[in-house]
Amino acid sequence: MSFLNEWTSDVLTRMPRKLPRPVEVEGRRDVHLGPMLQIAHVRLLVEPADAFSVSIEVPGLDAMLDGASYARAAVLGFLDVVLVAEPLPLRNIRVRVIEVTIDPVSSSVAAFHMAGRAAGKRLLETLRA
C-alpha cells in the first residue's frame, strides 16, 4: 500500500468535524529569506457543506500572471492544516477564495502555500475560541 493511499484512507474514514457556521479567514506570508522576500495574501470564506468543494471567486484572477496557480496553492496549504491538525478532520466544507493579493516580484507558489496554511491555523483557532 502506498503512503498516499494510506493517508487518504485514514483521513476519509475518520468521523468528520462539523463546521458550526461560516467563517472568513485571512492568511498572510510576508517573510524576508536571505536575498528574497516571500509575499502572499489570501482571504477565504469557509462554509458548512454536505461535501468538500472549492470555488475561486476573484474577478480577473486567471488573467493575472500565475494568479490561479497561486490561489490553488493557498487552498492546498489550507487543506494541509484542516485535514490533519485535529483528530477530527474538517472536510465537509465549501472553501471560497474571495481575495488574492499578488506582489509581481515577491509572490510565489510556496508563499501562497504558506499563506493558506496560516489561514487554516486561523480557522482552527477561531473554532477553538
Entry summary:
This protein has 129 residues and is of the alpha+beta class.
Would you spell out the secondary-structure blueprint of this structure?
Elements: H1 3-13, E1 23-33, E2 36-48, E3 53-56, H2 67-84, E4 93-101, H3 109-128
Parallel strand pairs: 3-4
Antiparallel strand pairs: 1-2, 2-4
Helix pairs in contact: 2-3
Folded structure, characterized:
By secondary structure, this protein is an alpha+beta fold. It has a single domain, classed as Ribosomal Protein S5, domain 2 (2-Layer Sandwich), CATH 3.30.230.10. Helices cover 38% and strands 29% of the residues. It is built from 3 helices and 4 strands. The chain has helices at residues 3-13, 67-84, 109-128; strands at residues 23-33, 36-48, 53-56, 93-101. It has a 4-stranded mixed sheet with strand order 1-2-4-3. Strand 1 (23-33) and strand 2 form a beta hairpin. The protein is globular, with a radius of gyration of 15 Å. The mean pLDDT is 89.
Number of strands: 4
Write the H/E string, N to C.
HEEEHEH
Rg result: 15 Å
- Write down the overall mean pLDDT: 89
* CATH uppermost class: Alpha Beta
Shape: globular
Helix and strand content put the structural class at alpha+beta
Q: Main beta sheet, described?
A: 4 strands, mixed
Strand arrangement, major sheet: 1-2-4-3
CATH topology, which one? Ribosomal Protein S5, domain 2
The separation of the N and C termini measures 39 Å
Give the oligomeric state.
single chain
Q: Into how many domains do the coordinates divide? A: 1
At CATH's second level, what is the architecture? Answer: 2-Layer Sandwich
Helix content range of the residues, please? 25-40%
